[in-house]
Amino acid sequence: MKFLYAERESKTTQNVSNILRYHGHTVDTVCDGDAALSFALAENYDCIIAEDDIPKVRGSEILSKIRQSGIQTPILLISDEIVHWTECTANTRYLCKPFAFGEFLAHLRTLCPSKKDIFPSSLCFGDIMLNINTSTLAGKEISLTLPRIECRMMEFLIFNKGTYVSTSELLSSVWGENTPTEIGIVWVYISYLRKKLDSISTKVKIKAKRNIGYILEIVW
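Structure (tokenized):
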């Protein structure tokens, strides 16, 4: 599938793009509403994802202008606040920040029902499987339910498998770009996740590299 993603925050853009590319999709990214509208009117996209509070032209305005032009491409609007737009229809949905990646993919499955199988509800790495709908982390013989924050963090680590992610990236992705939460909370939840991985007897571990970040590794 081909996506257009319009977002003002570069970190969020990178994270969401990584998710979509992880599943084998093509993503065009823009950082303002003018560019988003130009791309949307000129290209043929399977789905458009737009932040509402984007510079120059708001996401809700982009939606209105696209629909006025006769384009019925599915659109996901993302907002910092819960807002019910009157334009929302069967091919338009909204999502509030911060969001879990599982929630994000669930919206895409709803918007693109004929292609929902390409947005799996489960993620695998090594001998573990994370069901992002039920927040269940399973090893070969043992499974457990993760609290919301731990599930979001594990999602992010799996989506970025093979790449170190920094403490600040984890903080902004899991707690939100403008969270007042202190960065030390990330270390606390990394500790929680390590204990959960140990409890299901998996070979998957969270490795830390000083001043670099965290990565999932399989330890034989």
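The chain is about 35% helix and 25% strand. The radius of gyration is 18 Å.
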